[in-house]
Write a structure and sequence with these properties.
- It is a single chain.
- The chain folds into two domains: 6-21 and 231-428, Enolpyruvate transferase domain (UDP-n-acetylglucosamine1-carboxyvinyl-transferase, Chain); 24-229, Enolpyruvate transferase domain (UDP-n-acetylglucosamine1-carboxyvinyl-transferase, Chain).
- The longest helix is centred in the N-terminal third of the chain and has 13 residues, at 24-36.
- Helix 10 (319-326) links the parallel strand 20 (304-307) and strand 21 (331-334).
- Strands 2-17-19-18 form a four-stranded mixed beta sheet. A four-stranded mixed beta sheet has the order 4-5-3-16, with helices on one face. It has a four-stranded mixed beta sheet with strand order 6-7-9-8.
- It is an alpha/beta fold and 429 residues long.
- 55% of the residues are buried.
- It is globular and about 60 Å long.
- Helix content is 31%, strand content 27%.
- The chain contains 13 helices and 25 strands.
- The protein binds shikimate-3-phosphate.
């Protein structure tokens, strides 16, 4: 078997206690803000995956000193004027968050940088961040809407911006540019997305208003260094929750996991899918701190569930795991999720292909998919298509199959969850 393939055997039992790795979205944001803050920030439980490493590498290339004693990072902030133009292109690797958010961070600084990425990132749309950054006054050029993206920063004016797509990355790029812009920058979202950038900006000392779908930042604030503990990644934990919900007798307890309300829609959907879900939030947060706590998920029953278009932005990274859950029984239908086609893979096509290869009854739609959980998977070979969340979703679905499965390209999990398969082995028997 090629070294990047993994064999997953059916499980009779699934359960235990686990801590998810540090949240990827929050880690990117803390590292970027620490880089332009005054003083040394200490970030505990920093995300271990390749995406977060790409952000660290880009910040180092911009002249920021970062000491890694993983999972703790110490970032020596250089203040808003302290970054320098990199000698070489900034390589965002597989990470859309790195390319889009660092572009926003640099747009209002007097430097020039070119972003490149791997084959997957080079296919993903970048005009969505280039357009608002240009409107604010930066010069941004793309190659037919894609990387390489050259950003020539300069003095920016705050704008009011209504993104055409529900995207936390677009919102964040505009807000980070707004940090270095004159006046006020507002992002108005028709459907709210994750608010980690607004919270992080507050934690580091910026004046940010957060209300419903509107986030506003006053430009020109100097950020101060922080010591912060990144909560566990709820999107990574979702794979364990889906396995526990799917397998009769399954149960999992996840400690120290992020409970930001803009990310917890998954918990309601798990309940709709028939799972028993208990949540205990930790108390005593500081201004800007990310909510966190303990989640217990137990198998209850298998129910059919539907994800409506308005729910999709709050669940965008959880849809592959939910599809895996639906293969255990019940069924799932999602629409209004065309954004999935612009992720690390065409996540609708590759998800449907992989689940079908394992024996699922699954239908592709232009803007979503349907899984009929009425028949047990036989097991088979599913190609992760270079996509970390698909590798993990296929592995979870394979636990419920009648026979063994092979996940091709399983090493993609390193993007967000190094050690995923070791934990899978520890939790299943
Ligand atoms: C992310 C936002 C989401 C999500 C991605 C991480 C972020 O992307 O899918 O994994 O950190 O802001 P979009 O905002 O582009 O949908």
């Amino acid at each position: 078997m090629p070294s990047n393939d993994v064999l997953v055997r059916p499980a009779a039992r699934f359960g235990g206690r686990v801590r998810a790795p540090g949240d990827k979205s929050i880690s990117h944001r803390y590292a970027m803000l620490a880089a332009v803050a005054d003083g040394s920030s200490v970030l505990h439980n920093f995300a271990p995956g390749a995406d977060a490493r790409a952000t660290v590498a880009c910040l180092r290339a911009l002249g920021v000193e970062i000491r890694a004693d993983l999972p703790t990072l110490t970032i020596i902030g250089r203040g808003p004027g302290g970054l320098c133009s990199p000698k070489n292109p900034l390589d965002a690797a597989n990470s859309g968050t790195t390319a889009r958010l660092v572009a926003g961070l640099l747009a209002g600084l007097p430097l020039t940088a070119t972003f490149i990425g791997d084959a997957s990132l080079s296919r993903r749309p970048m005009e969505r961040v280039a357009a608002p950054l240009r409107r604010m006054g930066a010069r941004v050029s793309l190659d037919a809407g894609h990387l390489p993206m050259r950003v020539e920063g300069g003095s920016l004016e705050g704008i009011d911006y209504e993104p055409a797509v529900a995207s936390a990355q677009v919102k964040s790029a505009v807000l980070l540019a707004g940090l270095h812009a004159r006046g006020r920058t507002r992002v108005i979202e028709p459907v709210p997305t994750r608010n980690h950038t607004g919270l992080a900006l507050r934690l580091f000392g910026a004046a940010v208003e957060l209300s419903g779908g509107t986030t506003a930042i006053e430009g020109g604030a100097r950020l101060h260094a922080v010591e912060a503990d990144v909560p566990g990644d709820l999107s990574s934990a979702t794979f364990w929750m889906a396995a526990a919900a799917g397998l009769p007798g399954g149960s999992v307890e996840i400690e120290g996991v992020g409970l930001n309300p803009t990310r917890t829609a998954i918990l309601d959907v798990l309940r709709r899918a028939g799972a028993v879900v208990e949540v205990a939030a930790e108390q005593g947060l500081r201004e800007g701190d990310e909510p966190r706590g303990r989640i217990v998920v137990r198998h209850g029953s298998h129910q059919a569930f539907t994800i409506a278009p308005g729910e999709v932005p709050g669940l965008i990274d959880e849809l592959p795991a939910l599809a895996a859950l639906a293969t255990f029984g019940g069924s799932m239908s999602v629409s209004g999720a065309g954004e999935l086609r612009h992720k690390e893979s065409d996540r609708i096509a590759a998800l449907v292909r992989g689940l079908a290869a394992l024996g699922a009854d699954v239908d592709e739609r232009t803007d979503g998919f349907e899984v009929c959980g009425g028949r047990r998977l036989h097991g088979g070979t599913a190609d992760a298509a270079g996509d970390h969340r698909l590798a993990m979703a296929f592995a979870i679905a394979a636990l419920g199959a009648a026979g063994p499965s092979v996940i091709q390209g399983a090493d993609a999990v390193d993007v967000s969850y190094p050690g995923f398969f070791e934990t899978l082995t520890a939790l299943s028997s």
